[in-house]
Amino acid sequence: METHQTNNNKKFTTWFKTSITARMLVMGALTLLLMIPLTLIQDLIEEREIRQKSVVRKVNGQWGNEILLYGPILKVPYETFQETIVYDEVTKEATKEKRATTKYAYFFPKTLDIDADVKTSSKKRNNFETAVFTADIAASGSFETPDFSSKSIPDSTIVWDKATLLIKTTNLKGLKSEVKLNLNGNTYGFETNFKTKNNEYPQLDELESTAIALNDIPKDGLRSFKFQLMYNGSESIRFIPIGKITNVAMKSDWKDPKHTGNFITQNKRTTADGGFEADWRLLNTNRPFSQQFFQALPNLNQYAFGTDFIVPLDEYQQSERAAKYGFLVIGLTFLIFFLIQTLSKIPIHPFQYLMIGIALVMFYTLLISISEHSSFLKAYLIAGSAVVVMITLYSKSILKNWKFPVFIGTSLTALYTFIFVVIQLEKYALLAGSVGLFLILGIVMYASRKIDWGFDTETSKPVVVD
Fold it and tell me: Taking a C-beta distance cutoff of 8 angstroms, is the pair 68, 205 a contact?
């Protein structure tokens, strides 16, 4: 009985050492096991990215946040009268009283021309870096005569001497110039209208001028205006097209702009320094809101357009994309060793597979840590070279010659190069990845075509060795 059990154990041990199926099962189990530290590394990348975003928000908040600007707006008060009946308890008589209520009408300019010149720079805190900019925004245009006839408001109720100008914007902290507007040759200063913050984002703050002189109010024709603002900002610049004719020209040295909003650019060009120039031209018939509003201004944020100053792929995004290929790298590397072991009959212990897999996982920890102190390219080269050299030398001790280790090192170098190229691509990443994986599959199929899988080709049954 004991002899029979011993023989069974020996047969199982022999099968486990020589069977291709057993080696594949072990290799698959190790690959799945290594997914655990790979998942933890992906969590680490996400954690570091969240930390980076927190630091970037803090730096941007101190320098200046995104900019949303629209104005100037002509604000004209007018009075409405309502009759009420007042009952006197003493005299027992009812009398009529006429009470006046002040309301406001808002008129947008007839023409609005905006010229924005944006200079970018970088700010660094600890290991994290963010892009910020300084924007010089010059605006000019004209107001036409306000039209109260649509609401049947008589001229006698309009309080012309209390008319003011409004500029609505975000990022007052980032303003680096005094806000002054020249209207009809006269200059007007602005003060902030404090309002309770709500959940609207971005929050628009309101700048209001002193009362406009009667001669500068466009009651008898056009009145021209111009003003200039200097901002420290980050992330984006956007405008709302409140002119009957709105022209916006923006230029910057930023190399990766993303033009956003409901309206596309009229023209866009790449400058000699790699920056951009973009133009927008919009008419009042291109947008679904009026040139004038009574009682209150609506929320027009959804009609904003402009440019986002984005970093297409930062270090953490690229590291995250690289880590997504971890399963592919480990699987293909194990497959290469499996093919070499099968074709050359050189035994490779599961522990040795495990050491190779851990080395492949360590690539990502090296990549993250080095990229925080250097560029992603340098980090990728250092981490990739270190892992390739380590596995090549280790495989030399296993395979006893340089023929197969050199092949392994070359294959790993090609694989890491392929992944790096795919990571850098934006438009063609999916296409390049699909073509590359198809070619890899073809190579594996070609290399494994002569492997004896242990089946009798005539009976299609496993060959049993007594």
Answer: no
* pLDDT level of residue 450 (50, 70, 90 thresholds): low
Q: Is residue 209 part of a domain?
A: yes
Contact by Cβ (8 Å): 72, 163 = no
Q: Are residues 134 and 238 in the same domain?
A: yes
What pLDDT, in 10s, does the model give residues 216-258? 888 888 899 999 999 998 888 999 999 999 999 999 988 888 8
Determine the Cα–Cα distance for residues 11 and 6; give it in Å rounded to an integer: 9
For 50, list phi and psi in degrees, rounded to 5: -65, -40
- Beta carbons of 227 and 246 less than 8 angstroms apart: no
Residue-wise pLDDT for 315-362, tens only, equals 777 888 888 888 888 888 888 888 887 777 777 888 888 888 888 889
If we measure between CA atoms, which residue out of 277, 234, 282 comes closest to residue 122? 234
Calpha distance 319→369 (Å, rounded): 10
Within its chain, how far is the Cα of 149 from the centroid? 47
Inter-residue contact 131 to 56 (CB < 8 Å): no
CA pseudo-torsion sign 284, 288, 290, 291: negative
Supply the CATH number for residue 125's domain. 2.60.40
- 194 and 279 belong to one structural domain: yes
Do 190 and 169 fall into the same domain? Answer: yes
* 253 and 135 housed in the same domain: yes
Query: Which one of 254, 277, 310 terminates a domain?
Result: 310
Angle of helix 20-63 relative to helix 2-18, nearest 10 degrees, comes to 50
Count other Cβ atoms within 10 Å, centred on residue 10: 10
Helix axis angle for 20-63 and 326-344, nearest 10°, is 160
Query: Does one domain contain both 321 and 206?
Result: no
Final residue belonging to a domain, choices 310, 325, 358: 310
Confidence (pTM): 0.69
Nearest Cα neighbor of 453 from 10, 22, 14 is 22
- Domain annotation covers residue 60: no
For residues 351 and 445, membership in a common domain is answered with: yes
Angle, helices 315-323/350-371, rounded to nearest 10 degrees:
170
Are 207 and 293 members of one domain? Answer: yes
What distance in Å separates the CA atoms of residue 146 and residue 220, rounded to the nearest whole number? 10
- Nearest residue to 147 (alpha-carbon basis) of 244, 258, 27, 236: 244
Instruction: Specify whether 241 is located in the same domain as 358.
Output: no
- Please give the DSSP secondary-structure letter assigned to residue 90: T
pLDDT of residue 18: 59
Cα distance between residue 277 and residue 249, in whole Å: 7
Q: How many domains does the chain have?
A: 2
In which domain, by residue range, is 320 found? Answer: 13-52+316-462
